Amino acid sequence: MSATETIETTTGTNGKVYAVAALREAFEWVQDSSNWKNPINRIVVGTVDELERVNEAVIFFTGAGTRQEILSPTIGTPSRGARDVRVFTVRVTAPGYYKTCGA
């Protein structure tokens, strides 16, 4: 990256600043593969930080937060490569863009 390039950021509802690219990656982890505007219903394995970022990503792209139901705590390496060993298997659901925005 050159000195003149900037990274697009946004502040989440939790007050943390996120790179939009990081939110896009988190959203792609849980979005419906046939249409990103559809409802979300995915089972994922992640750390508390990763799951928080997923929630902020879904809010950023669809306008609605997620419901995250812990299915089981897991000890080991999270699926996204973070070093934190406190990981959870979680069902992530959200209404999606169409329902949230009335489209």
Describe the structure.
This protein has 103 residues and is of the alpha+beta class. The protein is built from 3 helices and 5 strands; from the N terminus they run ββαβαββα. A hairpin with a 5-residue loop joins strand 1 (9-11) and strand 2 (17-19). The protein is globular and about 45 Å long. The protein starts with 8 loop residues before the first strand and ends with a helix.
Concise synopsis of the structure shown:
The protein has about 100 residues and is an alpha+beta fold. It is built from 3 helices and 5 strands.
Jot down its keywords.
two-stranded antiparallel ribbon, alpha+beta, 103 residues, 3 helices
In total, how many domains does the architecture comprise?
1
Radius of gyration, in angstroms, nearest whole number: 14 Å
Residue windows where pLDDT falls under 50 for at least 5 positions: none
Q: Reading side by side through the largest sheet, how are the strands ordered? A: 3-5-4
